[in-house]
Write a structure and sequence with these properties.
Blueprint lengths: L1 H16 L5 H21 L6 E3 L12 H10 L1 H11 L6 H20 L5 E3 L5 H20 L1 H18 L9
Antiparallel strand pairs: 1-2
Helix pairs in contact: 1-4, 2-3, 2-4, 5-6, 6-7
InterPro entries: CBO0543-like
Keywords: Membrane, Transmembrane, Transmembrane helix
Length: 173
């Protein structure tokens, strides 16, 4: 029920409060977020840092991490991008706004742990997720204004994370 509720909340919120008149301004960043998510799933398929776990009720529809990740990538992440970027303030308020989203995403993950909707592997824990969320929302903002710079940061982040968590290159097939 937890995951269904998340999907409904994100879809409804994006429908109600996003800037749909200018959706095409956010479309490249939506695709960027989706691609980054799918890239993580490709690179870390055999050596995951975190996995979405199937939950009762929708277990038949989303029975494994791959299908759940695809569903999240094509629903929650586009909704997040639309909501986040269409209300992004200017100046000092931007940092507070970004940190609010970081805390919101971290809170969702904190709730996901006892619900067994997510599991951690290979040394990952909630503290790393907090840092990862800061990086994610920072890079998402950068992508909206300077896409090539954001791709550079993604490449650097992949190298750092893969090195730090000792991603075995032979695990990438």
């Amino acid at each position: 029920m937890f995951r269904i509720l998340l999907f409904i909340i994100f879809i409804y919120s994006a429908y109600k409060w996003s800037d749909w008149r200018n959706w095409s301004l956010y479309y490249p960043s939506i695709l960027f977020f989706i691609i980054c998510s799918l890239l993580y799933n490709l690179l870390y398929y055999n050596y995951p840092l975190w996995k979405f776990e199937p939950l009762p009720i929708i277990e038949r529809l989303l029975p494994n991490n791959t299908l759940i990740s695809i569903a999240v990538s094509f629903t929650i992440f586009p909704c997040t991008t639309l909501l986040y970027l269409s209300h992004l303030p200017k100046g000092k308020k931007e940092i507070i706004y970004m940190l609010t989203w970081v805390l919101f995403y971290t809170l969702i993950e904190l709730i996901s742990i006892p619900c067994q909707a997510i599991s951690y592997h290979n040394g990952w824990h909630l503290g790393y997720s907090l840092v990862f969320n800061i990086i994610t929302f920072s890079i998402l903002r950068i992508h909206h204004k300077r896409p090539l710079v954001a791709w550079g940061f993604v490449f650097i982040a992949i190298v750092i994370i893969s090195t730090y968590f000792k991603l075995p290159l032979d695990s990438i097939e």
